[in-house]
Amino acid sequence: MRRFLLEGLIRRPLTESAPGPDRDATDELAEALARLTRAKLGRSLSIRHVDAGSCNGCELELQALSNPFYDLERFGLHFVASPRHADVLTVTGPVTRNMAEALRRTYDAMPDPKWVIAIGDCAREGGCFAGSYAIVGGVNAVVPVDIHISGCPPDPTALLKGLLALVERMGVRARPG
Amino acid sequence: MTKLPDLAWLRSRDFRAGPFPVSPVTARGWTALAHALAADRFTLMSLWGEAGAVCMALHDAEARRVAVARLDGVTGGFPSVGLLHAPAQRLERSVADLFGMVPLGAPDARPWLDHGRWGIAHPLGAAAAQTAQQPYPFLPVEGTSLHQVPVGPVHAGIIEPGHFRFTAQGETVARLEERLGYVHKGLDRLMQGATLARGAELAGRTSGDSTVAYAWAFAQATEAALCVAVPERAFWLRALMAELERLANHLGDIGAICNDAAFAMMLAQASVLREKALRAAQAAFGHRFMRDQIVPGGVSADLSPEGEAVLAALIAEIRERFPALVALYDNTASLLDRTVGTGRVGADLARRFGAGGYVGRASGRDFDTRRDLRHAPYDMLRTEVPLRREGDVNARIWVRIREVEQICSLVTQMLNTLRPGPVRTEVVPVGEARTGLGLVEGFRGDILVWLSLDAEANIRRCHMRDPSWFQWPLLEAAIEGNIIADFPLCNKSFNCSYSGHDL
């Protein structure tokens, strides 16, 4: 274990580093995201996630946001275990009839102001599952959606972009209290 | 005991190359098969409904052959297999939910996938308006000082939804009862009448972490049914993708299991390797999860020489960095204290349920589709199947550690064998109805796809059985006598699929 701790101290971090002259999209995005969350939220935005019927693909990419490459928490964005602690609800999947109530209740349990991000192609109108007897439809069939992030599944960079878009919109929409 | 009905038993070389004949049985023969399952003569691979019929896929492990029995003329009910052989129970409850055909004499008559919210009853049978929703009666637990802890369907982490009802005595779990079906999307009905292209799309979205394995199993079933000769290079590319998918999942889960024992460092280190595997997949195959890359007839895009180099570099890096992680796991006493002896699954249960993947192999069930029901290209590769007998969380981790090492060997062998050539051939209808079976070893275990096509090669019925069907019940057994706080650890060491199970 000592070896890993020591390496952690002396090695360059894996996290996509601060923007340089030839920065790629991720770096650019990371910088913009950090600036915006700090300005609007004082470095704190809590996200609660609900899988309302997804195939699990989107969840895997959401989990990847916490790996050392994307390190979501450096922006002050973090996933929380309870909707009562959350500002943002991320929802994946076509909403199944069996999950619609649980999704609605999770949304209702969140304090205002709150925002909803629908993630993945299925979250819009149900994607390739649309028309099934077991599907209500997209996320907006159950809760109001502020931002939609497309992809099957959207990769972590697309997810970061979506979070950025939401943070930008927050300034013009809901106000606390 | 009644005489067993004559079944058309097929070895893998036969059902992988051609259509799979169904063996019609009488109700008496059906029951005789249930007795044979209970007597451990065969393993139940799946049980599903069709229009007016129920089917069972059986595996004869010793003879390495498979048969599909069908009981026709079922109107209201059929003799319950679950009455004699518990692994069939949830499958039968699903048949009752979807088709309205009732397993007669079944010990558990509660609905399973149907939560009373679809608006229609028996969507695949004689669909009717649904009656009012009934509360779901959980199984009674009797004893002193018991309390219940309901968890889900919305869980604390970024994971899939399902409900767990714990009954605990102090900290110790007396009973866990699962309730699933929350992510039921009605895939079986969406498949009916679909084209093969649409079917492949849906199959690849059955369980996101196993998109390659599902797409491959679906393609196998199609190609077997229609006798399609797939170009050799396509087999190699498919296997490369399947192993890459297995690698990414194993790496992610090894880290996540340790994280559930509060050892976050392993998650951080393993997730770095996982991310590198996903990026290699993106570079080599154009998608991080390689979704929609395997299609009936071959693969949708070829692998470039640069892609091959990326894969070789990935394997070199895993070989260099992974042993240190294994040593870290093995030398951290506080971590082993949580994993050793926790969540034990007995060998008898694993065998009876035909548990696939690391759940079975950590409990001494020596089965791997890649070796025991072979298909190309694994018949040309050296495949070793790691096996443990303790059946605890630690054993499941070790099986996966050994599988990571095995994957490195397989990918290297494949990259050395790969030769240029076509990667896709056309799939054409044969002008008659056909049935085919696909069986692929996903990272979680064996995935079964049963496909019934009409004369135009459109889908009449597609049944997909996730390995989780036979693993979820074992999780209930594994947690008994453990403390609730160890449930995340046990659950992650199984990592069953919700979406693949609920369909």
Task: Classify the secondary structure makeup of chain A into a structural class.
Answer: alpha/beta
Strand content of chain A: 15-25%
**Helicity level of chain A, as a percent range?**
25-40%
- Average pLDDT number of chain B: 94
User: What multimeric state do the chains show?
Assistant: heterodimer
Most extensive chain-chain interface:
A-B, 50 and 51 residues
Backbone CA Rg of chain A: 17 Å
| Rounded average pLDDT of chain A | 83
Evaluate the radius of gyration of chain B.
Answer: 22 Å
Major β-sheet annotation of chain B: 5 strands, mixed
The total count of strands of chain B amounts to: 17
Q: What general form of chain B does the structure show?
A: globular
Helix content estimate of chain B: 25-40%
Largest sheet of chain A: 5 strands, parallel
Report how far the terminal alpha carbons of chain A are from each other. Answer: 47 Å
The SS-based structural class of chain B is alpha+beta
Order of helices and strands of chain A: HHEHEEEHEEEH
Question: Kindly, what is the distance between the CA atoms of the first and last residues of chain B, rounded to a whole number of angstroms?
Answer: 36 Å
State the low-pLDDT regions of chain B, or none.
none
In short:
Chain A has 177 residues and is an alpha/beta fold. Helix content of chain A is 33%, strand content 16%.
Properties at a glance:
heterodimer, A: 177 residues, alpha/beta, 5-stranded parallel beta sheet, two-stranded antiparallel sheet, globular, disordered C terminus, B: 503 residues, alpha+beta, 5-stranded mixed beta sheet, 3-stranded antiparallel beta sheet, 17 helices, 17% strand
Structural notes for this entry:
The complex is a heterodimer of chains A (177) and B (503). Chain A is built from five helices and seven strands, in the order ααβαβββαβββα. By secondary structure, chain A is of the alpha/beta class. Chain A has a five-stranded parallel sheet, with helices on both faces. In chain A, strands 4-6 form a two-stranded antiparallel sheet. In chain A, α2 (25-41) runs parallel beside α5 (156-170). The model of chain A is unreliable at 17-23 and 172-177 (pLDDT under 50). In chain B, the strands form six sheets. In chain B, strands 1, 2, 3, 4 and 5 form a five-stranded mixed sheet that branches. In chain B, strands 10-11-12 form a three-stranded antiparallel sheet. In chain B, α6 (211-225) packs antiparallel against α7, α7 packs antiparallel against α8 and α9 runs antiparallel to α14. The two termini of chain B are 36 Å apart. The mean pLDDT of chain B is 94. The interface between A and B is large, with 50 and 51 residues.
